[in-house]
Amino acid sequence: MPVLTIDKSYPANFGTNPGLSFTPFGENLPNSTLVDHTVVSSNKINTRVLKLLDDFETLNPNWDGEDAKAPSKDVIFRVRNLVRLLSKTGQPVFHTAPGPNGEVMIDIRNEDQSLEIIFYSQKAFFVKFPYSGVPEQGKFDEENISDLLSWLNG
Q: Is the pTM above the cut of 0.90?
């Protein structure tokens, strides 16, 4: 699997083509960066996940009948960019789901290990579920994508 690198010197234009930019997962959403000039979505699993994200954009408040918040467009945008980036590396995303506080979770698996990344409006977290042992969690940002995928696929 290729090593992921982020080119921070090239600011992406937020309104031009959101599929080509990679948005930082911190609080400064407009400071997105361009990763590549092409989007490859040949992975059927990730195509399904991208379709689910389109569906999440249509959710209204109280979508679950329990007062759940609808995910914001910014959250969905950031998740979609990560899924597209993962597609470029050949990493399938197992599943994605909205949460009750407007968050969106993606689940990435490899054999007996899994990695969940949960995006909130101003932050994101990861949870590593090893084959055996205790889950580990931390703050997620573009700086630790390669390390997390190396752990998952190592």
A: no
